[in-house]
């Protein structure tokens, strides 16, 4: 089975390179695709210099559209999704996410931070369905309409579809791993504003995909 890693990124110039470097260490990954979702910094150039495929969206369309743009550029059977701002990512984390699908026991795995930082550990423990770290069979994406419209709600849409259809999935603990929060990236006020916008997009996705309940 062919495996592609898709990394959606928006203004992640200081972080994207580190994530790419780790993914490149994993031999079972066939393709690495970074989708620059309308960044205004050097995200595109840094990813391009790493020698991976880079798709550049002219304007910010949101995480859902960025991921679908990446999927449209690969024929891989397994799609690994990783955020661009991860801290502590290792090749073992990646292999642990992919292996359950390679073994054909599960069609989706989702990673939850643990032993990283209290705040991010707690957030994912409370709402694990919002994690951006997943390995998913391509066919699942092909069966869910309008994912490109979900923005940050793509994770809840995937989770609800898998649950509704009794598709085998498994939670993977991502030990000693965390990510850079919006408040750290943007400052307290702008970060909180961005977080509220993110949760609003998640709530909209819940409404749109309510028929998966």
The fraction of residues assigned to DSSP E strands is 15-25%
SSE ordering = EHEHEHEEHEHEHHEEHH
**Tally of DSSP β-strands:** 9
State the strand order across the main sheet.
3-2-1-4-7-6-8
Structural class by secondary-structure content: alpha/beta
Please estimate the helix content: 40-55%
Helical stretch tally: 9
User: Separation of termini?
Assistant: 31 Å
Stretches where pLDDT is under 50 for at least 5 consecutive residues are none
Mass-distribution shape: globular
Which radius of gyration do the C-alpha atoms yield?
16 Å
Largest sheet: 7 strands, mixed
What is the mean predicted local confidence, pLDDT? 88
Written account of the structure:
The protein contains 9 helices and 9 strands. Strand 2, helix 2 and strand 3 form a beta-alpha-beta unit. The two termini are 31 Å apart. The strands form 2 sheets. A 7-stranded mixed β-sheet has the order 3-2-1-4-7-6-8, with helices on both faces. Strands 5-9 form a two-stranded antiparallel sheet. The radius of gyration is 16 Å and the shape is globular. The mean pLDDT is 88. The chain has 213 residues and is α/β, with parallel strands linked by helices.
Q: In terms of topology, how is this protein built?
A:
Blueprint: E1 3-9, H1 16-23, E2 31-37, H2 43-49, E3 53-57, H3 63-71, E4 78-81, E5 86-87, H4 91-102, E6 108-114, H5 118-126, E7 134-137, H6 138-143, H7 154-164, E8 169-175, E9 178-179, H8 182-186, H9 188-208
Parallel strand pairs: 1-2, 1-4, 2-3, 6-8
Antiparallel strand pairs: 4-7, 5-9, 6-7
